[in-house]
Amino acid sequence: MPIPSEQKHGSFEYSGELAMPEKAAAAADRMAYMADLLLELQRMAVTDGHATLAGLLSLAHTEALQRIR
Prior knowledge:
Blueprint: E1 8-9, E2 12-13, H1 20-47, H2 51-68
Antiparallel strand pairs: 1-2
């Protein structure tokens, strides 16, 4: 029998889906993937001489890496 989403378990709310550690791990994996994509796009922008775009992508890559930690 599923536990209602309003019921609390420890310090997190159970929603019937993945528990918080698994959700956090999945979110971190997605963010790491996005960071890899941003880095690749940044490299492409540098290669093609798009300095402003490369700088923005570099900033986004840094932000993604910070959110993983």
